[in-house]
Amino acid sequence: MTPPAIDMSSTTTTTSTEDKPKNVGFRIGLGDITPNNLGQLKRLNTVLFPVVYAPGFYKDVLEVGEFAKIIYFNDVCVGAVCCRKEPVAGSNNEQNLYIATLGVLAPYRRLGLGSEMLKHILEQAKLSLTAAGQAKVAKVYLHVQSNNEEALEFYKKHGFENVEKCENYYSQFEVSDAYKLEKVIN
Amino acid sequence: MRDLPSKEANLFREILKCYELKQYKRGFKGADQILKKFPEHGETLAMKGLFYNHLDKKDLAYEFVKKGIRHDMKSHICWHVFGLLYRSDKNYEEAAKCYAHALKYDKENIQILRDLSLLQMQMRNLEGYVDTRHILLELRPQNRQYWVAVAIGYQLLGKPELGVKVLTTYEETLKEVPSTPDYEHSEMLLYHNTLLEEAGDLQAALDHLDTIEKQVCDRKALKEKRAKFFLGLGRLSEAEAAYRGLLAVNPDNMAYFEGLRNSLGLGGDRPTDEDEVKILDMFKQLQKEYPRSNAAKRLPLRYATGEAFVKVADEYIRSMLRKGVPSLFVNIKTLYSDSAKETAVEKLALGYLASLDKSKGFDHSGAVVEPPTALLWTLYFLAQHYDFKRETEQALGYINRAIEHTPTLVELYMAKGRILKHAGDHVAAMGALNEARELDLQDRFINTKCTKYMLRADNMAEAEKTAVLFTRADIPNPLNDLVDMQTQWFSLEAGESNLRQNQVGRALKRFHQVDKHFNDYTEDQFDFHTYCLRKMTLRAYVSMVRLEDQLRNHPYYVRAAQNAVQCYVRLFDKPDGSESEEMEGMTEAEKKKFRSKQRKAELKAQQEAEDKKKKAAVAAAETAKKAGTPAAAVKVDEDPEGTKYTKCEDPLGEALKFLQPLQQLASDRVETHLMAFEIYVRKNKLLLALKALLKSIKIDANHATLHEQLVRFALAVQKASSAKTLKPSVKAVIDQHWSELYDAHGQDLSAFNVAFVNKNKDLGSVPHVISAAMSTYLINPSKNLGQAELLLFSVAEKGDKYKRTRTLENVLLVQKTLKGFKSSRQQEWKAKGNEWFPNAVAFQ
């Protein structure tokens, strides 16, 4: 049901680099998703992913707190990440985190925004291990379309492992196979 | 108070106190207690009436106060109470009479004198105010307020020098000046200084500043005044130093930059080339001094020309695009009054776009990679630029590219809506604004704009639904909050929408609402007549009083008045509204069908309104119950259609009421007199119509609409004289002015019209063509129709002659004019319109 996450690279930081030509500095920042800016998330998803999300998806997004974020580039909303918490069979105080969507608008790619969002999710997952009164995140996982080399590389760079090939996972697409990637949090 | 034994006399004193402390119920009981023993005691009866007034029993209030006066005609208390009663009903004239009566029986009653002076100020009886205030000052010379009030009276009378005298005398009586900073004293001194300035003696004002300096708290005002006086006195080097000092405090105050420029001898709107260089140097210096000042960067664009302009504009626009400043275009477009600047900016922006597309920089040097938002804001800028030039296709192209680039940016959809609005597609424009709104539901600005666009698209239901998203939710009818908050733009836009849909009653209701808001503003100043004197905020007070005097010159009122006049004129022309605009040109059968359709729609609307009213009443009762307020306090609109206005006896008289403030305050606007003509000519008041025409001629002799009115006036005079209804005395006056109106053309209207056409042949103004065509038609409707049509179609001529004024609004006006002629060439014109404005719904 979930499309592949979008390609990302993290060669640029938020300040200008020493390389030539010189990059002009810019600001990035993460923001909460609220009922008031949900329209922006919907717009992003419409443009970024070939899937129409059901109203339930957006209802859940409002309830996962730090595990769903919008990213701003020079104060313009250009990307988002949305995760879902899933119970772990046979455990009361553990859960898995599934990255349902992570994407950045095309003109804003290769500027480190995807990494910024993924890092935030992983940090929050780690925090859950020590936070009281909250189920601990055992692992973070997601699916990537099997031909999406860039995405595979992106997640591997952030410590994800390819654990399973899911045949015909994206039944509606031409390339229907997907890889399941996961990272254990500890 | 009189004739009461001591026990009751004490009680009476107590109820007076109750009134002051607003303990109305207690006071009421006390009054009743006295009346039990002395049922005919006039002053107590009057007081009882006053308490009734505050307990919301108007009828009884008047009854008892009058009864009180009957029993005690010579009591100043009774008359004072009567005055207070009138005042609470805003009947200031009657109130003032009562106070004057009261003063007859107690000449030196401070309270009554003060109350009278407040009324005199409110009614701007300034001579009376000064007199009353003089009496008060003599009674209480030790009180600062009374001195100051006399000075204010003189100032408003245009005699600031007398005000100065009063204040000087007062200051001399002071044994010692406050040693610690005293805000009130400081304000009084600054006010004194303002009077000196107004009296025109800048040197005296400057010297005075030096003497009061130590006691003034408002240091900024002190510095600003000093700089201004130096400049006014031509002491330029001191002025320069003073303005530089001010800039150090606030380097974003445009007025300080202007002052500095003037004190350097570089003033004026159009500097010489030599001065231009100096001005630009000055700003360069200031930019270095104040790198964070936006004004120092923006102002050079105003003064630079030619190459120098390109240079400063390039720098400025680049930095703004890089930063992502949404308001950039709004800031730049004011420069477009100079077409060379417009061209230069366009060239720059197109250059940026080409470079950004190719090498991600603002130029091809390859030295800098701009952030992706630079391209985004450049596209946004270009879209607005071309929209400004009304090049719809270009504008839409750029905005669509921008939306494709970053579909989450709210501003883009707003710009798109604006482009579509200008192109004449209000429904699509509303759609774009709603998209913007849905991207950011918590932004009141977008919500408001979206509501406005819904009203422009005549979608009242959606507009109301959207507007109430940001009004108070805890009142029975959240739409009423818009009235309580005096949301004038909403009343105006909604009224104009009603008018477009031929709902004249509803429209008038809204325009009267605006008028009422302005009444309220006038009323609202009442409390400040005492408050400001007490607090010594005198400079602000005087500026408020002067603002109040000009209030109805505000664009909102002007707009409401123009619309209301239009409504009432329409009611006069078509009293039963039977011939609405849609019906013009229909056959009888079609009309019948149309009417029955309208009736059905009306019935349905009525039914719906009934249901809504019932629901609202239930809901209101519910909320009232919850809030614990009595149900009676919740008002239900008894007349949503505004039949009160459509059924009025004298629509033109009502129209005049809207017009009169404009005749007083906006007599320099030709529209005021054009409106006046429309009313007077219908009232058959030919002399007043003549007066309106003469005033219009004085302001703009070649005004397009004026010409048509002149022709109509001549026709009206002809008609009156052939009907033998023209009084000789009236005719004499008209004859006397005839040549001022019609030059040497005498009674030959056709020649007059031809002369107008010839005179404006090369002007390329569509409104003038419309006026000429209209006149041609009116002179002889059956014979001249073809000729009038020809004139109108000349607007469609090839070439650039009419391109500038062939705006959507004007092309629609031509269409409306043809419709008025019942011309057979309407379709032909519509096709032309469609060619020029493919997006405009009216031509599809």
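The mean pLDDT of chain B is 92.
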